[in-house]
Structures are given as C-alpha cells and as structure tokens.
Amino acid sequence: MPGQEERSTDGRWDPFETSSIEVRILDGLPCAVLLIDRELVVRYRNAPATELLPDKTGAAAALASLHAPEPFEGWETELKSLIRQGLSRRWEDVACEPTPGQPVSLNLACQPIRRGDDQNVLGLLMTIEFTSQRPAGSNRPQAEARLMSLGKLTARVAHELNNPLDGILRYINLAIRIAESPPQARRPEETQSPNARLVRYLHESRTGLIRMVGIVRDVLEFSRGAQERYDSLNINDIVDEATRTVAPLADAHRVIIAADYQVQGMPCAPAGRLLQVCTNLMKNAIEAMPHGGRLLINTGIVDTDVVLRFADTGPGLPEHIERLFEPFYTTKDSHEGTGLGLAICRDFVEQMGGTIHARNGDHDGAVFTVAIPLSACHAAPSSAPARREAPVRTAASDGI
Predict the structure, then answer these.
(1) DSSP three-state, residue 158
(2) How far apart are CA 185 and CA 175, in angstroms?
(3) CATH class label, 232-398
(4) What is the C-alpha separation between 156 and 350, in angstroms, rounded?
(5) Long-range contacts made by residues 49-56, C-beta under 8 angstroms, separation at least 24?
(6) Contact assessment for residue 330 and residue 204, using Cβ atoms and an 8 Å cutoff
(7) For residues 220 and 172, which has the higher predicted lDDT (pLDDT)?
(8) Which residue in 115, 187, 338, 400 has a CA-CA distance of 20 to 30 Å to 394?
(9) 353 in Cβ contact with 376 (< 8 Å)
(10) What digits encode the pLDDT tens for the residues 234-246?
(11) Which residue spans of the chain are classified as CATH 3.30.565.10?
C-alpha cells in the first residue's frame, strides 16, 4: 500500500505524488492526462501526454505547442481562472497541428482537483483526446460517447480511491498506537482488549484494500478494454461458459438459470468481451435475488442483430434507469460494488458496434437486452438443430 511519503504534510493524500496508486492508474488511460498545480506547473503527464506534448513544465507553454486557438485571453489566463473559480470546462473539436502538416481534431477538458470534501482547489486535471485525424466537425457519435464516459471516469477515480485510502490510514494509525502502547495504558471505558481492537482495525484495513483492488481492476478494464482470453466461439457457447462461471453464486442464492437458445444460424464472435458482459449481467441478476428466483436467458437473431436477453424475477430497476450505465453509479451498498460493472458492459458492447438497454419487466424483475450486429460476428462452422430449449443451470438440487 502507499507509504507515508505519499501523503501531504497533514497526513492526507497528495494528488501530485506521482508514485501514488491513484496517479499510476492514469498511466493505463488511452487519452493524454496532465496534472497541473496552482502555479500551472505540470506535475505529472501520462504516456500519451508525453508523446503528444513536449517536455515543458509550464502548462500554458505545453498547450501552446499544440498550435490550437487560445481560449479568451490565452491558456495561462484561462487555466488560472478555472483554478480560482473551481470550475470545469470542455473544449470540443479543437483544430490543432501538433505536428506540422498533420492537422488533428482534439477534445480538451479540465476538472478541478480537490482533496476529499475540501473545497480548496489544488490544481487541474486535464484530459486531451483525439477525436479524429480528419478536419474538425466530422461525424463521430460513438467515439464521442466513449470519450465522454472515459473523461468522466478519469475525473472521479481519484476521489473514489481517496475514501478507502483515508480509512486505511486511520485504522493503521490506531493499530500502531495500540502496538506501541504499554499494556497498562488501556483506558477503563475500552471494552475490548488491545488484541481484539488490533485485529478489528486490521480487518477494516483489509476491507478497504479489497475495495481498492476492485476499483483498480474495474478501472483498468474500463479504460483499456478486455483482452481476448478465448478464441472465437459460438455465441450460445459463450453464454453457457458465463453460466458455468456464475453457477456457484446461483446455487448459493437458490436461483434457477434457464435458457431458450436459437441455434440455427447463430454465429460466432470473439469470446473475451462478450463473456464478461454475460457474466456481469448474470451476476447482477443473481445478486438482486438473494432469497431465490429465476433468470431466463434468450438468444436469437432479429433483423440484422444477434440479440441476448436476460430477464430476472428480482425487485426491478430504480427510477432513473439510464443512470445504471454511468461509471461509479451503483444501487448496491458501498462495500458490495464499485459501480463500474454496467459501465464496462456498455463499453464492451459498443466496441462491438452493439447496444445494451435495460427496462423493468412487464410484471416484475429487470430485463437487459444486448444487440450485436451480425456484421461484427462470423458464421459458425456448422449448423445445429433449429432450436434448443432447456434449463442450463438450476439451483442446488432444484429445491426452490
């Protein structure tokens, strides 16, 4: 875990400490990222920023090298104004020429950096994203949606990690105090023994670290995309593989998983991303039915799309369904989810050229529908019977 040298003088997280885990996550992002302090000194740049911008310590000078139209009175005035007012700003489709004779279109965005709930602005987080190698204003709706999601994720990841980090530091300090105190220093009002309190503090620290590991894993998957871990498989086989993955969880929750597959003409697809999408959707459905229920999975071909439908008998979806796919939005308790699972699903489906939608069921439960263009798949090597309809997995002993 981070050492004390990664904290500011008051013992709190230092956002400009480049060895901190929060900052190292930014190295995995595909867009250029700069951390700029109040004096407009570039304190950190990730690998894409190092490639795009010259090694200048001044943010205004580095941005000037992009040969982009300067906002208002210039980059220096604009950035200082954002820091002073604590505002965020985004410039879209900025025509630049960082390399002579090679015009590009960029999106630039600035977010103020604060420490926890402190309202004092410490600096700016700037992201620079290539929108096109073509002239500005080209049509790119899918790329724009992905970049906006990525920018939102980048702006919030430090805050999400700061909460468990501060908790871990607090519990470790308490554990150190107990370890360094003589046995007779125990206060009368303390009901637990020093050893019991020490164990409790270590368990709380472990819980915080586990949450951080989950956030880091999901952030990296969201920003980089899943590596293909399997060869191309029939889509029905991908769903079967996901079902086997969640089978222990289904048994523990006494959830029956049943399937109705179209087999005739069902194509193959690279399995890595689609497997994770199916696994995440199944896992969410099972966890929404802690006292048992049923999950029905359908596959089929509708017009020019392969469609996968996941319908459960759980409590249904919240009022603002569209927010489910936003990074870090979760309806689970803070210790149970990071709020990135559905954001990752949408990202992976959109990378395949498809769509994912959620709605409440006609009577109860939730329904998630994934549509993938047939053009993103390829034909299976052989055909099978026209249809298969059978329960893929039941709860232990089918005893619901």
Answers:
(1) helix
(2) 14
(3) alpha beta
(4) 22
(5) 49/128, 52/98, 52/128, 53/98, 53/128
(6) no
(7) 172
(8) 338
(9) yes
(10) 999 999 988 988 8
(11) 232-398
Q: Over the stretch 328-352, which tens digit does the pLDDT of each residue have? A: 656 555 445 556 678 778 888 888 8
- State pLDDT tens for residues 56-80: 888 888 888 888 877 767 889 899 9
CB 368 within 8 A of CB 242: no
pTM value is 0.47
pLDDT greater than 80 at residue 220: no
Output the DSSP codes for 339-389.
S-HHHHHHHHHHHTT-EEEEEE-SSSSEEEEEEEEGGGSB--SS---SEEE
pLDDT at 297: 95
Sign of CA dihedral 67, 69, 73, 77: negative
- Do 269 and 209 contact (CB within 8 A), yes or no? no
241 in helix, strand or coil?
helix
Residues 6+ apart with CB under 8 A from 91: 71, 107, 108, 109
The CATH class, in words, for 1-224 is alpha beta
d(CA 236, CA 241): 9
Displacement of CA 368 from its chain's centroid (Å): 19
Range list for CATH 3.30.450.20 in the chain: 1-224
